[in-house]
Amino acid sequence: MTLAELLSTGLLGLGAAFFLTGTVGLLRFPSTFARLHALTKADNLGLGCVALGLALQADSGWVAAKLALVWGLALVAATASAHLLARCILRERGGTRRTPP
Amino acid sequence: MGLAFDLLLAGGLLGLALQVVASRGLFRSVVLFIALGLLMALAWARLAAPDLALAEAAIGAGLTGALLLSAYRALQPAEEAADPGPAALPRWGALAAAVLSGALVAALGWAALGLEAPAASAGREALARLGESGVKSPLTGVLLGFRAIDTLAEVVVLLVAFLGARVVAEPLQRAGPGPSAPGSGEPVLTAPLLRLVVPMGVIVAGYLLWSGGHQPGGAFQAGAVLAALGVLLRLTGRLQPAAATSPAERLALVGGIVLFSAIGLAGAGTASAVLAYPEAWAYPLILAIETGLAVAIALPLTLLFSGSAGLRWRER
Amino acid sequence: MSHRGYAVETLNLAVAAFLLLNLLAGLGRVHRGPGAADRMLAALLFGTTTVAVLLLLAEAMALPALRDVALLLVLLAAILAVAFTRIPRRPDGAGR
């Protein structure tokens, strides 16, 4: 096994562990907001580790660039989704309104 | 390991499909159906059919989910007023229906197992003569070369479906995603999200259109991506519903079909048959048709989601 | 891939299978709820997991087009959340 393969294996394992953490959080955390934390953070770290691990296996720089693009877009989507959902839940529970800018 | 993955995927798909129809509560079924779409994309991936996985991802993630959520929104007041649940079927009736359907599936499966594989299939023939179609991707070659008539008819069906929806949509006051909740401003992150996702989506649609010639992709996938972007813009209020279809929209709705038909008819003179392309021009003609078709697929889908005759841009 | 060891391919598939198992376990949250938002959260998790599985399959099956599928999924992932926020809330916040 070369060093790159070893690193890649480690990163994939770490990614899988992060995904497991996210799932456990989703199932076990007591409140919706806590679950939101578990998901949007653990998952995207997991995806990042998996993408990095696969980039080490990749043949060309283009493949690695595409993996980076996928991860970057996933971060943007997760940020926006988490924000929209959190705001939605807050309103639903009659929470505070953001002061107008 | 591949077998373990496939068994897990197949079991998950079946279980999920059962849960979608059997679970109580409309919203739960909607979310389960979204998950089913994701697993379907994985199934197509495992079957080495990336074209279908692309279409499933674009339609499942971008269109069906949003469509079901907005249909749920429209159904919500009705559900609150009176929730009779699904029409009650007597137990023996349900049992009889289940046994009969099970027997039918078993009989069909038995018959299918007994069939002999044909020695020469149309698929192999098409693959062997792919060079004649002018493109390198087998799927595009079949869709726009060997079976162009089917593709043309499919796009016409989409247009007819849109026209049909327009005929019955008038009395449906609740069509489309409806107005935004009053009194609450737009979430802060919506505008930056759109500024990033919309241009990226247009680039990806163009990439899929271009890649359709030599690798998985093509007009249907590109059209589905553009339609998903239209849905996103409609949901965030950038596109507002309009009562009338503008001339530009009419042109986009029929343009792809007219272009396809015109090139197809010209094929009778310039090439050997109707819907055949002159050999030297096959690739550019197919690309031009695909571009027109992508627009002719995206616009009716967006308008169907919007539940309106037209869309107008509104700057915020 | 020819030059790469069989072991790496198996590893990629094994990680993919593990992630799929995670996804199926997450279905429990869709059933338990309790609110619509909790169910929606699970759907978001499924989206990210599917993207990771597609990336792993692209490498394991040597099908680069599957990376485009993953790209498409992350690009359109936010649409669901946007569509969800357009559902009017009930005062008691009860989802189904």
Structural features, described:
The complex is a heterotrimer of chains A (101), B (316) and C (96). With 101 residues, chain A is an all-alpha fold. Chain A has helices at 3-28, 32-57, 61-92. Chain B has a domain at 137-177 and 188-316. Helices cover 71% and strands 3% of the residues of chain B. Chain B contains eleven helices and two strands. In chain B, strands 1-2 form a two-stranded antiparallel ribbon. The model of chain B has no long low-confidence stretch (mean pLDDT 82). Chain C starts with 5 loop residues before the first helix and ends in an 11-residue tail after the last helix. In chain C, helix 1 packs antiparallel against helix 2 (36-60) and helix 2 (36-60) packs antiparallel against helix 3. Chain C has helices at 6-32, 36-60, 65-85. Chain C is mostly helical and 96 residues long. Chains B and C meet through helix 1, helix 2, helix 3, helix 8 and helix 9 of B and helix 1, helix 2 and helix 3 of C.
Concise structural overview:
The complex is a heterotrimer of chains A (101), B (316) and C (96). Chain B is mainly alpha-helical.
Tags for this entry?
heterotrimer, B: 316 residues, mainly alpha, two-stranded antiparallel sheet, 11 helices, C: 96 residues, 76% helix
Topology:
The complex is a heterotrimer of chains A (101), B (316) and C (96).
Chain A lengths: L2 H26 L3 H26 L3 H32 L9
Helix pairs in contact in A: 1-2, 2-3
Chain B lengths: L1 H21 L3 H21 L3 H32 L9 H24 L7 H7 L9 H9 L1 H22 L20 H22 L7 H17 L3 E4 L4 H24 L11 H25 L3 E4 L3
Antiparallel strand pairs in B: 1-2
Helix pairs in contact in B: 1-2, 2-3, 3-9, 6-7, 7-10, 7-11, 8-9, 9-11, 10-11
Chain C lengths: L5 H27 L3 H25 L4 H21 L11
N→C terminal distance of chain C: 47 Å
Label the overall shape of chain A.
Answer: elongated
Helix content of chain C: over 70%
Spell out the helices and strands of chain A N to C: HHH
What's the oligomerization state? Answer: heterotrimer
- The chain-level mean pLDDT of chain A equals 84
Biggest interface, CB < 8 A = B-C, 66 and 51 residues
Binned strand content of chain A:
under 5%
Low-confidence stretches of chain C: 90-96
Report the major sheet of chain A: none
What structural category characterises the helix and strand content of chain A?
mainly alpha
Our count of helices of chain C gives 3
By DSSP, the count of extended strands of chain A is 0
Number of helices of chain A: 3
Arithmetic mean of pLDDT of chain C = 81
**H-E order of chain C:** HHH
Task: Report the principal-axis shape of chain C.
Answer: flat
Low-confidence stretches of chain A: none
Secondary-structure content class of chain C: mainly alpha
Write down the domain tally of chain A: 1
Helix content of chain A: over 70%
